[in-house]
Write a structure and sequence with these properties.
Layout: H1 2-21, E1 29-33, H2 39-51, E2 54-57, H3 76-81, E3 102-108, H4 116-124, E4 131-137, H5 148-153, E5 158-159, E6 163-165, H6 170-185, E7 188-193, E8 196-202, H7 206-214, E9 217-224, E10 228-232, E11 242-245, E12 250-254, E13 258-262, E14 267-276, H8 281-288, E15 293-298
Helix pairs in contact: 2-6
This protein binds flavin mononucleotide (FMN).
């Protein structure tokens, strides 16, 4: 009897230990990757270990064969990578992209470019609500490939700063994931004008990614056109300009280095930075008062 009781207790302890140590899958994170020689696959598995996200291997309908990789202008890879319109077909599909908030997107560098199948993947779903972090495997740590290629090709998506890995270690992956998680946490910043503190929700783009690294900053802004306050940041931020009609509360980047805060409306080519919350047009007009004023942007 005592033996049975002891066995039961031991089982309970083992079960609860196993239950605690086995982390649950984090359904909000997707790790999608394309890999031919398993380097990117290994990277994806290392990221999975840190995030507990869901792994998804992007599989080409027509598998790449040994001869496709030959170093000639007639090889499949060379032809695909030199054809701007090429979109290799993917054989498998994701069920519901809206299940995910963050996507780690992995691929090898091919001929200093992103494999065209990654273009197929990004064009196959509506990723406008997801934050995408690219990660690449490369043969050399001296590569001239730049992840800006993806950001400039998919300006409508939230593609953040990615990383190229050359012989990665789990510790390096862990550090990268932690920095990305920290970045993701910043949803709002504050704008202080004398005694008034305004909350601004952030757009997620490269400009805000760089901006938050520089905070706190103080900027002198002045009136322009009777609808905005504008001032020089004193540094450049990456632009993703679009022709937009602004409304009161909008905060945008103009010309790559000027911050514009609207209490009225204007139509121009800007990069969105964010929006001031819960203030009417009149309130903002009053807060911004007339003439040159000093504003401080901060994280808290
Ligand atoms: C056709 C081809 C072109 C490549 N071009 C480059 C390149 O331009 N720069 C680079 O650093 N590595 C290049 N590589 C190396 C791969 O990026 C690297 O081996 C990668 O780790 C392979 O990833 P995978 O095992 O996930 O397929 C190339 C590899 C192949 C097959």
């Amino acid at each position: 009897m005592t033996k049975k009781l002891l066995l039961c207790i031991l089982c309970l302890i083992l079960c609860s230990f196993y239950g605690c140590s086995k982390k649950e899958t984090n359904n909000k994170i997707l790790i999608a990757y394309f890999s031919c020689f398993d380097d990117t696959k290994t990277l994806a598995q290392m990221i999975q270990k840190e995030t507990n996200g869901t792994l998804f291997e992007i599989l080409p309908l027509e598998t790449y064969k040994e001869e496709d990789f030959t170093n000639t202008t007639s090889s499949r890879i060379w032809i695909e990578q030199n054809d701007v319109k090429c979109r290799p077909i993917i054989q498998n599909t994701l069920n519901d992209i809206n299940d995910y908030e963050t996507i780690y997107l992995g691929f090898p560098i091919w001929l200093n470019q992103t494999p065209k199948i990654i273009y197929t993947f990004l064009e196959s779903y509506d990723f406008k609500n997801q934050t995408i972090f690219p990660f690449c495997s490369s043969q050399s740590n001296d590569t001239s490939y730049s992840l800006n290629e993806l950001q400039s090709q998919f300006r409508n998506l939230h593609i953040r700063e990615g990383k190229i890995f050359y012989s990665p270690l789990q510790e390096e992956i862990k550090k990268w994931i932690t920095s990305k998680e920290e970045e993701n946490k910043v949803e709002q910043i504050y704008i202080t004008i004398q005694e008034t503190k305004l909350t601004m929700t952030l757009e997620h783009n490269q400009a805000t990614e760089e901006l938050i690294k520089k905070l706190p900053i103080t900027v002198m802004v002045d009136d322009y056109g009777g609808f905005e306050k504008v001032g020089s940041l004193g540094f450049n931020l990456p632009t993703s300009n679009q022709n937009i009609t602004t409304s009161y509360g909008d905060v945008v980047l103009y010309n790559g280095n000027q911050i514009v805060l609207f209490y009225g409306s204007n139509q121009w080519s800007y990069t969105r930075l964010g929006k001031i919350q819960n203030r009417s047009a009149n309130e903002l007009k009053e807060i911004f008062s007339s003439g040159k004023i000093s504003i401080t942007l901060s994280l808290d």
